[in-house]
Amino acid sequence: MDNIAIELRGIDKSFGLVHANKDINLKVRKGTIHGIIGENGAGKSTLMSILYGFYQADSGEIFVDGKPVSIRDPNTAISVGIGMVHQHFMLVENFTVLENVMLGAEDSQILNKGIAKARQELKRLEKEYALEVNPDALIEELPVGLQQRVEILKALYRRADILILDEPTGVLTPAEADHLFRILGQLKAQGKTIILITHKLREIMAITDEVSVMRRGEMVATRTTRETSVEELAELMVGRRVLLRVEKGESSPGDVKLSVQGLTIKDSRGVTMVDDVSFEVRAGEIVGIAGVAGNGQSELLEAIAGIRKATSGTVLLNGKSVDVTGHRDPAELRARGLAHVPEDRHHVGLVLKFEESENSILGYHHDPRYLNGAFLNIDAIRKDAEEKIAKYDIRPPNARLKTANFSGGNQQKIVLAREMERGPDVLIIGQPTRGVDVGAIEFIHKRIIEMRDQGKAVLLVSVELDEIRSLSDRILVMFAGRVVGERSPEATEGELGLLMAGVEGRKEAAE
Amino acid sequence: MSTPYAKLPGWVEYGLIPLTNLAVAFLVAGLVVLLVGENPFEAAYHLINGAFGRGEYIGFTLYYATTFIFTGLAVAVAFHAGLFNIGGEGQAYVGGIGVALACLWLDQVMPWYVVFPLAILGSAFFGALWAFLPGWLQAKRGSHIVITTIMFNFIASSLMVYLLTRVLKPLGSMAPQTRNFAEGGQLPKLDWLLSIFGLNVGTAPFNISFLLALAAAFGVWVLIWRTKLGYEMRTMGHSPSAARYAGIRESRITVITMMISGGLAGMMALNPIMGEQFRMQLDFVQGAGFVGIAVALMGRSHPGGIIPAAILFGVLYQGGAEIAFEMPSISRDMIVIIQGLVILFAGALENMFRPAITRAFAMRGQRAAAVVQTKGA
Question: What is the architecture, at CATH level 2, of domain A256-352+405-510?
Answer without folding.
Answer: 3-Layer(aba) Sandwich (3.40)
